[in-house]
UniProtKB/TrEMBL annotation:
Gene3D superfamilies: Tetratricopeptide repeat domain. Keywords: TPR repeat. PANTHER family: GENERAL TRANSCRIPTION FACTOR 3C POLYPEPTIDE 3 (PTHR23082:SF0), TRANSCRIPTION INITIATION FACTOR IIIC TFIIIC , POLYPEPTIDE 3-RELATED (PTHR23082). PROSITE patterns: TPR. It comes from Limosilactobacillus caviae. The lineage of its organism: Bacteria, Bacillati, Bacillota, Bacilli, Lactobacillales. The keyword Transmembrane does not apply. This is Tetratricopeptide repeat protein. The keyword Transferase does not apply.
Amino acid sequence: MTYSEQMVDQLEAGKLKEAQNSFKLALINDDDDMLFSLAEELYALGFLQQVRTIYLKLLDRYPDEDELKTSLATIAIDEGHNDEALSYLAQIKPDSPAYVQALLVAADLYQTEEEFEVTEGKLKEAYSIAPNEPAVEFALGEFYFMVGQYADAIQYYFQLIKNGYTDFAKVDIAGRLGICYAQSGQFKKALGYFKQVKPEYQTSDIRFQKGLTQLQLGDNDEAITTLEDLINDDDQYASAYPELAKAYEKENKYQQALRVVQEGLGVDQYNEYLYSLAAEITSHLGNQKLMKKYLVKAHELAPDNMTITLQYSNFLLHQHDDAANIELLRPLIKEDETDPQLYWNLARSYQRTDQLDLAGKYYEAALPAYNENPTFLKELINYYREAGETDKLMDELEHYLRLVPTDMEMQDLYDQYEDYK
C-alpha cells in the first residue's frame, strides 16, 4: 500500500495524526500519478491546504502543465484568494488545452464577485471554442439560471438532455428545465419535466415546484396530493403550507385550508403571511373573532407591510369599527408616500363618524387613483350629497354616468338635482 492510500484509509478512520504523517511520507516517496490521485481525493474531502501543497510540488516539476494552474486557481477561489487565482489563470494562453477550463474557472471567480457581464463573456468565449463540451453547456445553463434568465438557460440544459446527460455535477437537468419553464410561464412543459426527475433527485424543492406548477395549471387535486406528500415527508418545509392551504381554498375546502395554515404556524410562528392567509381563510368560515386575532398578529409582526395593514383596515371597516380604523391608518399618512387605498379607507371612517371635513380631504386625495372606479365615485357622490357640495356632486354624477350609463338610480339622482338647479 502506498503512503497516499494509507493516508486516505487513516482519514476515513478518523486517525488525523497518522494521516498527517502519511501525507509527509507520500510527498517524499509516492510517484506523481499517485500524488495527483491523492490530491483529487483530498479535494473531495475538503483538505484544500494539502491539495495545494501537492499541486505546487507537481507544478514545480511540470511548469508547463496548465491543468495544475487551473486547479490551483480553483483552490484559491475556494479560499477567497481571487487575486492569486487570477495570477494562475493569466498564465494560461488561448492555445493551451486547458484554456477552456481556465475560462470556466475565471467565470466562476467573476461570478463570486457579482461581475456578471464578465462572467457571461468568459462563458460565451468558452462556448465559441468548445460548443459541444458538456461542462461548458452546463456552466452556461447554471449561470443563466442563477441570474434569472430562464429562457436563455433552457437552450443549454436542453442541449445536455439531447446529448444524453440527464444529470450533470449532481444536478438533475429535468428538474432545472422544469423550474425554467415554470418561471417562464410554460407550466405544461414544466410539469412534464418535473415528472421526469429521477427518484434520487426528488428533493423537497423539486416537489414543491411541482406542486406550484400544478396549482398554476388549475390541477388543484394533484397539487394537494403533491404538497400533502411533501409535508408528510418533510414537515419542516415551511413554504409548502401556504400553497397547500391555497389549493384547498380554491376547492372551497376552508376547514382543511385553515388546518394546514395552523400546522404551518406551528412550523413558522413568525410568518406574517401565514397569519394574513389564515385571516383570509377564516373570513369564509364566518369566525370574525378568530379573523381579528390573526390580523392583529399579522400586523404586529409586520407593521410596515401595507398589504396586511389594508387587509386589517378593510376588516375594521366591515366591522364598522371606525375609531380603530382611524387609529390604525392616521399615523401612516405621508405626502406622496401613501397607498391611495389608505386614503379611501380613512375617508370612509371619517364620513361614518361625521368628520366630514377630514372625509372630504381624503376622498379627494384618493380621487386621482380611482377616477375611473365606479364604486369609489359612487361613494364620493354620496359624500358630496351629505356634505351639501352640489357643484362637485353634479360634476361627479356626470362623470359617473359616462362610465355607467345604465345605472338608473344614479340617473334619477342626477335628474333630481337638475330639476333642483
